[in-house]
Amino acid sequence: MVGAGGIGCELLKTLALSGFQDVHIIDMDTIEVSNLNRQFLFRQSHVGQSKAKVARDAVLKFMPQINITPYHANVKDPGFNVDFFKQFNVVLNGLDNLDARRHVNRLCLAAEVPLIESGTTGFLGQVTVHIKGRTECYECQPKPTPKTYPVCTITSTPSKFVHCIVWAKDLLFAKLFGDKKQENDLFVSAGDGSDSEKPTDIFERGSDEDHEQYGRKIYNHVFGYSIEVALANEETWKSRRRPNPIFLKDVLPERLILQNGNLEKNFLTEDLPLSAMSSVGLSNPQDVWSLADNSRIFLEALRLFFGRREKEIGNLTFDKDDQLAVEFVTSAANIRASSFGISLHSLFDAKGIAGNIVHAVATTNAIIAGLIVIEAIKVLQADFQNCRMTYCLEHPARKMLLMPVEPFEANKSCYVCSETPLLLEVNTRTSTLRDFVDRIVKNKLGMSFPLIMQGATLIFEVGDDLEEDVAANYALNLDKVLVELPTPVSSGTMLTVEDLQQELSCHINIKHREEFDEDKEPDKMVLLGWTAREKESQVVSNGNSTSAAVPAAAEATMKSEEAEVNAEISGTKRKLSEILEATENQEASQILSRPDADNFKNSHELEDDDDDLVVLDNYPETSKKQRLH
Amino acid sequence: MDGEELTAQQTALYDRQIRVWGVDAQKRLSKAQILVSGLNGTSVEFCKNIVLAGVGSLTLMDDRLVTEDALQANFLIPRDETVYSGRSLSELCCESLRDFNPMVRVLAEKGDLAQCEMEFLDKFDVVVVTGCSLKTKIEINEKCRKRAKRIAFYAIECRDSCGEIFVDLQNYTYAQKKSDGTAECHLSYPSLEDAILIPWRNLPRKVSKLYFAMRVIEKFELSEGRNPGELSNFDLPAVLKQRKELCDAQSLNESHVPETLLERILVAGPMLYPPVCPILGGILGQEVIKAISGKGDPLKNFFYFDAADGKGVIEDISNPSSI
Predict the structure, then answer these.
(1) Is the ipTM of this complex over 0.90?
(2) Which fold would CATH assign to domain B8-191+273-315?
């Protein structure tokens, strides 16, 4: 089992009760309070401990004879290699991020071990079975990689609240409290009357500036002055709503009077976490605060960070469980939103967006766990013919809350399980090797320890044991544009990219292209042959983190086309996605309705003549050619 | 909803589920009083779910002592004879459930719900029964319907690798969210007795075969005075006879109640297929949460799951005139 969280706890319990004797479970996380509403093997007293280990101990209480081997580790660690996976009869995933899922998928393919994937969000869930040579692999239907936003949208032209959150979290919070050495796109030049010869960084605190003054200065700079500077560029606002600069004197006039006032009315006890909300007198995280209250929170949060958490400044990264950080980001995002005419959000909602929180309940996880075990048992019995995928719906579709669907055939163009080359359109004169490695190899292809070759020449690899001169050479290569590499990469070149741990090798044909659309193609590279189109997902880009706010169900079920009706019998063709839409499974239908893929034609059996939803049945003798056996 | 806010502790613990159903629903859950009569693999799954959801209280009734059968698919009972010896299922399950959520009152009540005074039911908003005869289920359902306050009634049964859930919310009104706003929705549920009295030829087309199979077995159990799980393969010939009688009386072709299905259920006897328990217990959990919170379309009025075909189906077995 990979994952001892929401699905993991339910799954381990059900495996144990179903008679499984030898289970290994990998999870890198420790237990948090917000887990306890559904990860029932854990108690308040376990907070901070390893999920895998505590889950094991809990299960042994009611099933003492089972062998459970826990690993408090990241499944992407090199120790979990193909040989490790070969030990198992079946692998069950209960993960919450795409990155790890793809990694496990590749290892299972390499080890030739069946994989059962699953995901849940709220009331939705699904279970899918992947058997090499028989069904599609997890990546045959491309899954959307986490959404990134163009830098200018974040820094200059936000139009959605999530843009404001990303600005507040990845720019402002990072600039104020994070690593000073990190590059930051925030506009920092002072402009209010200081010497224009030498541009100063407004975020540097003067020795005579107290926290209050500093806070006010920052406020006026990021919400007032920066906006005024941006407004000066007419071009930007030709067809966009102009933002309103916001200055403290207009929002909180009383602040001017309280220049040196000590606003610490409250007596914070040691055990209560620092909170700007309680200082200011706001108590309900579900309330949407006014611009004035957001401003108070902003200033108070700043004051508390500098006054009471000074030691952490310079090392902080945003943590959704850090109350003060969440308050700061919420207020900053809201003030910015106010400026740009975007609606404000409550702390509760902002926290969900900033923290990529997936909403979750125990019941869906329990149902999915039961379905996983049913499939796992079939796999162990080599009863592959009867393996199926199952969708758990919020609204019934054709009377069904649990809908079985036949597994899909492998996609012959899947670069993961069928070695088809991909095509990359890139400007070989302006894009660097680093761009290629970061945006394509690591992000899109999901390789962690890649090796890049052109013919027989290694142009790049990642490794700890590289010789100094070799490593130096690679470092040099990274900054070169593609045509200027020692072995030039240009139109017609074929690169081979490999990840030895995942035992995945893939060929990419390069095609030079001059222009790319800044909005639609922010990477300035387009990878083809892998996906025709990607679904837009409302995800905050957290840099390296790939835990998506897109429902986990969406990650695993991006079906381009579902069961198609046998047209001969019923005369009508309806896609699963349409049926779901019609039955108010809006979220599920969005998940399932994607453009593309003529490759994924499936035929299924009708169970009854007036059922135009295609489901699995038990009559193999009437099956069509493409049906799996 | 009144102004009583959730505590900081509740908000922190329930954060992820509040993001699913909202604060108001969570407040209503925290006031709900649930009764479960009969503890087996499926009902303990339900208990776990409802306790994690944060109801006001959960009362368990099952005086039976621990047996091998009772232990199957039950993760609430520590496998330690020194711990469970001499103690009732309700006591043992109660202890474990309290740990799952200290904010929920979990109680064990001695006695048999079938013998209880009607007034006893007034304490509860929801009653769930399992493992008892059809006669008992009907009686308890009737008692629930007679009380002044509406008591939601659920019956759940898992046999082999399939199962059934019955829902009775009496007259239920709720706000249904649609794409263009909310609309008031009114549902009228029949009692268990009325539902199963509906002539089979009046039922919707393609009703799940499980519905009929359950009714045949129930009828047979009734005539033999046995509880769910007490039949075996030896009873097959007699059960088939019962099937013929029923089908003839209802003018239904016997093919709607496959022999293989009946046999499967009988062969299993008291055995449950463990992975089916969380599926049924999960669906039931969701239904009870919906009914208490008033959010979401409750299912009406039967639910079936069969691991053989993997379908989880809702069947509306009610008189069209009463909808």
Answers:
(1) yes
(2) Rossmann fold (3.40.50)
